[in-house]
Structures are given as C-alpha cells and as structure tokens.
Amino acid sequence: MWAIIYIYSNMQKFHSLVIKEISKATPKAYSLVFYIPSEMRKSFVFKSGQYITIKHSIDDKEIRRCYSISSVPSKTDTFEIIVKCVQGGVFSQYVEQKLKIGDTLEIAEPEGNFYYEETAGSSKNFVAVAAGSGITPIFSIIQSILTHSNDNIVLFYGNKSVEQTIFHNEILELSENFGNRFKIIRFYTEENIDGHHFGRINQKVILDTLLKNHIDLSNIEKFYVCGPEDLISSTTSSFLSQNIKKENILHELFYSQQSPEQIINSSSIIAGETVVKLILDGDESMIKVNKNVLLLDSILDAGFDIPYSCQNAICSACLCMLTKGQVNMVKNEVLSEEEIRDGKIVVCQSYPVSDEIELNYDKI
C-alpha cells in the first residue's frame, strides 16, 4: 500500500526567551516568568486561556511541553506559566533541579481555542470549573474578566489541600476585591475545612450553587472546564443535560487517563508499508513508513520539523486539515464533531489509511 501526503507548511515559530523569575507556586509546582523583548512582543500577543509550547534539549533528546499562560495579555513584557512537578516528568524534574533565572528556553508563539474574549454590550455571566493545575488558563481568564470588563464569573475549584492549591492567595484577593462579580466554591479531597466542600467537585453542588445564586443557566455566556479527563466528561455531561449548547462549553484537558497501549489496542491499525510524499516549505520528499506507526512519529523520525507539542491529542499544536484521503484518528480531545467533518485532524494520533492523503496546514 502507498500513501502520498502533501504537507503545506504553517510552521511553529520558536523564539529564545530568558527566564526572569522562578518561584514556588506550591510545594509541588513552580512559577516561571519569561521576559519578552520589545522586538518580540507582537509575536507573543495572546488571549487569556491560550498556551505556549516549550522546546528544549535534555540529555541530548529534544522534548516539547505545552503550558497554559496564567498571566494576563495586558502585561506585554512578561508572561507566566506554572510547571507542576510530576513523578518521572522529564521537564518538570529539569525545572526543579537545574533551571535557573537567566536561562534561555525556546518558546513557540501562543495558540489554542480555549480562551476568553471580551465583547461589547451589557455584562455577561461565565462559569469556570477547574481541578489542580487546571486553574492556570482559567486564572488568566478570571483576571481578564474582572479587570478588563464588567462581566461576572463563578469558579468551582478542586484541590487536595490548601497548601497544594495553585494561586490560593491570589484568588482569595480577587474574591475580596471583586466579591460582587466573582464567586468561588472550593473543594478539597484531603482536608475537611469549614465553609468548603470535602471531596471531588460535585456536579449537583455546581447546579445547586448556580440555582441558589439565581443564575439562569441559559444566560451564561460560556462554561470553561479544565482538568483531568473524568472531570471534563462528567461536568460536560451535566451541563448538556441542562440543555446547555455544546458550543458554549469549552474544555482543556490536562491529564489523559488512557494509556497509549490502551489507545492502540482499541483501534484497528492497518499493517504494511506506506510511502509518504512530503511537500514542506516548497520541497518534496519521499519517505517509507509503516502503516502501524503514527503519522507524526513517522514524519519526525524522517527528520522533518512539523508543528507538535503534547503528542497525546490534548493540545492543538499538530492540527492540520485533511484535504484528501482518509486517516484513522485513534484519539481526539480537542476537535468537535463539526471540525472533524470539516477535515481537521490531530496528526499525533492519526494513522494513514488511504493510498493518497493531503495534509494542509495553511487552512487551519
């Protein structure tokens, strides 16, 4: 079997940025603040909720990680991300053990479809649901809503304990300063604190709280949900059951609970060899790959630099338009059914199926 892939390049643009500040956000998370030189500031204009991709070589191996920006767009000379320490995490261990102020990292320009955009007119209502480090894009959204609009927002925020709560003090201060426009409902799984909920974020509590505060679900502009897969699934289902339009529920997945082995075993992968024709920045190349290897892996192994980041269909860095042919997309956490019908795919979780395939990055 042969597959011909035409790739019209829309490359990720990386810039060298210096780390201005490093501090502990919690005992298990670090705040990194990057300085943006004046000549690069147009490249780092972003909307609250979007993310950046870091590219760095550790032990002679290139790694890429995507992190949501937690600061606000109005601060143009710096931006902040939070890196949570993960057991066995290559980059988070590097941050904890080696990274220092003044070091330089390669940063891609901001992207992502999970964001807040101020609109003209009367004040609007928003709801946010976050667990753990899922607060990072939502914290940027909350700050923008409260300081640059007349909109209102209710936050449901789950953590293990107060000590492990990212932005605990900052959110408390916002609540005190904008109490009439900002309400926060906290959940803790390892501490039972008066006035807060013990256990995981509960969908009944969410709906009851909104009802108690006389918030009409039909009048909520957007619902933002960010955290692990089970939180997103249960919360989205709960909102949909209340006749909320699917397009008004935005989610950002931070942890996938399905392993790569589970994904592959649950999918029908075609065996055999595939010849891939790449048209990249005007150059044409032919490579031979296996049909049971993901397209992104095959293209990268052949030495081609195409956009990607998480490699797990959680971010949207590797999105492209499938303009001809068929692929087997075995996992997807970012594309809607409508976007898939339009031809968008995540290359990092797609296997070639048809004999000829066209991937167009310029139409994204």
TrEMBL record:
Keywords: 2Fe-2S, FAD, Flavoprotein, Iron, Iron-sulfur, Metal-binding, Oxidoreductase. Residues 12-117 form the FAD-binding FR-type domain. It comes from the Bacteria. Its cofactor is FAD. InterPro entries: 2Fe-2S_ferredoxin-like_sf, 2Fe-2S_ferredoxin-type, 2Fe2S_fd_BS, Beta-grasp_dom_sf, Cbr1-like_FAD-bd_dom, FAD-bd_FR_type, Flavoprot_Pyr_Nucl_cyt_Rdtase, FNR_nucleotide-bd. Residues 274-364 form the 2Fe-2S ferredoxin-type domain. One of its GO terms (molecular function) is flavin adenine dinucleotide binding. The keyword Transcription does not apply. It holds the Pfam family FAD_binding_6. PANTHER family: 1,2-PHENYLACETYL-COA EPOXIDASE, SUBUNIT E, NADH OXIDOREDUCTASE HCR. This is Ring-1,2-phenylacetyl-CoA epoxidase subunit PaaE.
